[in-house]
Design brief:
seven-stranded mixed β-sheet; binds 5-S-methyl-1-O-phosphono-5-thio-D-ribulose; three-stranded antiparallel β-sheet; alpha/beta
């Protein structure tokens, strides 16, 4: 899978792997304006925090390159309006906000007329895509050092190529360790209700011939207690000084890992870290009740049942043995210094 790109710029359009169809069908879809990109993010055609960030950056690149603005002020106003739409697509992944702000800063600092700024915006989005792949390769190298030959690693949701531009975050150390000749097995959780683990992680790992066993989410405690898991590695949608916001179920995995003395790691690029000083709350996305009440379009629960469907949860950082980043493996109490030198 690491030869594939989940999001890319192709002939003035944004091309993405349609993740709503995997594993039944593998197809690309192309988008020609930022509103379509915002919808693709909302509908989870593209998902996974780093992939969402780069998709939004490319959405702004579409807005810039198709603009008829005659002044730079006009172009920047249009980009800010597009940014507002893209920001509302999904609320938790920090990479989305980070990417949009970076593109807007680039446009504001850009030199020349509207078409020059548009070209600079497109280049910045392309650079961000390359940086994501480079960061993931580094995460792979640093993370592989933590893995021993014969390890079985439990992971949650999908954190592979499909969740990034390519290669992945939590799957990167596994991929790199396997390339180094280590025998690594993976236990993937199903990840109710959208089943990213069942549908996407198993798809990626089978394609790469990395041994994977699928379990239901509720089996995590049992497999850990039984001694079947040596390490747990998950990704993240947003990391603050106190919490890791990641796919719902992550907190229970971290607690089960602690109870069973299993090292629990979080793998993420620095674009996922929201270490603003004044920051207190993480906006946890709540998705439609239909994701829980229906499977394959068929209702599986009594009509009228009340549903609460948070897409993410919050794991306290002290449950994390280390954050595997492109700058090295960083401890929770050294995040600011380890990542941003501050
Ligand atoms: O709702 P999703 O599928 O976008 O959630 C994805 C996750 O929770 C991933 O663990 C996270 O984005 C890290 S992916 C590299």
């Amino acid at each position: 899978m690491s030869e594939l790109r989940t999001v890319e710029w192709a002939n003035g359009r944004v091309r993405m792997i349609d993740q709503t169809r995997i594993p039944y069908k593998f197809r690309y879809v192309a988008f020609k304006d930022y509103k379509q990109v915002a919808k693709a993010i909302r509908d989870m055609v593209v998902r996974g925090a780093p992939a969402i960030g780069v998709a939004a950056a490319m959405g702004l690149a579409l807005a810039a390159s198709s603009s008829h603005a005659t002044t730079r002020e006009q172009l920047i106003k249009e980009l800010e309006a597009a940014a507002d739409v893209l920001r509302r697509s999904r609320p938790t992944a920090w990479n989305l906000f980070w990417a949009i702000d970076r593109i807007l800063r680039k446009a504001q600092a850009g030199g020349g007329g509207p078409s020059d700024i548009a070209a600079q915006v497109v280049n910045e989005a392309l650079r961000m895509a390359e940086e994501d792949v480079e960061a993931n390769r580094k995460i792979g190298e640093y993370g592989a050092e933590l893995l021993e030959d014969g390890d079985c690693v439990l992971t949650h949701c999908n954190t592979g190529t499909l969740a990034t531009v390519s290669y992945g975050t939590a799957l990167a150390p596994i991929r790199t360790a396997v390339t180094q000749g280590k025998k690594i097995r993976v236990i993937a959780t199903e990840t109710r209700p959208r089943l990213q683990g069942a549908k996407l992680t198993t798809y990626e790992l089978l394609r790469d011939r990395i041994p994977v066993t699928l379990i239901v989410d509720g089996a995590v405690g049992y497999v850990m207690r039984k001694g079947l898991v040596k390490k747990a590695i998950v990704g993240a949608d947003r990391i603050t000084a106190r919490f890791v916001a990641n796919k719902v179920g992550t907190y229970l995995i971290a607690l089960a890992a602690q109870a069973n003395q299993i090292p629990f790691y979080v793998a993420a690029p620095s674009s996922t870290f929201d270490l603003r000083q004044d920051h207190t709350e993480v906006n946890i996305e709540e998705r439609s009740s239909q994701e829980v009440t229906h499977i394959g379009g068929k209702r599986i629960v009594p009509k009228g049942v009340k549903v609460f469907n948070p897409a993410f949860d919050l794991t306290p950082v002290d449950l994390v043995r280390g954050f595997i980043t492109e700058k090295g493996v960083v401890a929770a109490d050294r995040l600011r210094a380890g990542l941003f030198g501050a």
